[in-house]
Design a protein that fits this description.
alpha+beta; 2 domains; six-stranded mixed β-sheet; rod-shaped
């Protein structure tokens, strides 16, 4: 090692430069590591200052609540759908002149049916001196009582789900009819 003795000062300077470079390199790495740690902490910290585990637990709890609420709403919708089957859903109206002494198609047959085609047909006959009102039960789209031509037409319109109003001119022998769109 005698041959290195004349170069001792140069080796020492080179080693000091290497140590200084390593120090600068370590300082730079430490700075980058600190910045990365801060970014990771910010990333893993929720909006309310909680850590990642607490954030995930909160999200999991909210998800469970949303699923439970969805199941509850599904049951409620199913119950409402069952109830809706019993509500009036199909309507048929036929207007006509029942008596020769009154014009303007004041008489009517009204069919009101639920989702299972159960309901009633209401017929109102209006004249100058007398008025009458009749009701007939409908079960599964059929009645036990005989129906007039207008009542049959109102039932047919309701069974087809229509809301069109059918009107007939004063009752000629065959009861010619015309359909008007919309309600009268």
């Amino acid at each position: 090692m005698e041959f290195l003795r004349p170069y001792t000062s140069q080796i020492l300077i080179a080693l000091i430069v290497l140590v200084a470079l390593q120090f600068l390199f370590l300082t730079t790495l430490s700075s980058r590591l600190n910045r990365t740690n801060k970014l990771v902490r910010d990333l893993l910290t929720g909006p309310e200052g909680e850590d990642l585990e607490a954030l995930l637990q909160r999200c999991l709890g909210e998800t469970r609540q949303a699923i439970a609420r969805g199941d509850d709403l599904e049951q409620r919708i199913s119950g409402l759908a069952t109830q809706m089957r019993g509500c009036v859903q199909k309507v048929g109206v036929v207007r006509f002149d029942a008596y020769g002494d009154v014009s303007g198609e004041q008489s009517f047959s009204l069919a009101l049916l639920d989702g299972m085609s159960n309901g009633a047909i209401i017929t109102g006959l209006f004249g100058r001196t007398d008025s009458r009102c009749y009701g007939k039960a409908v079960m599964d789209g059929h009645t036990e009582q005989a129906l007039s031509e207008e009542e049959e037409e109102a039932l047919r319109i309701a069974l087809n789900g229509g809301l069109a109003t059918l009107t007939t001119s004063s009752l000629p022998p065959r009861g010619k009819s015309r359909v008007r769109a919309g309600r009268d």
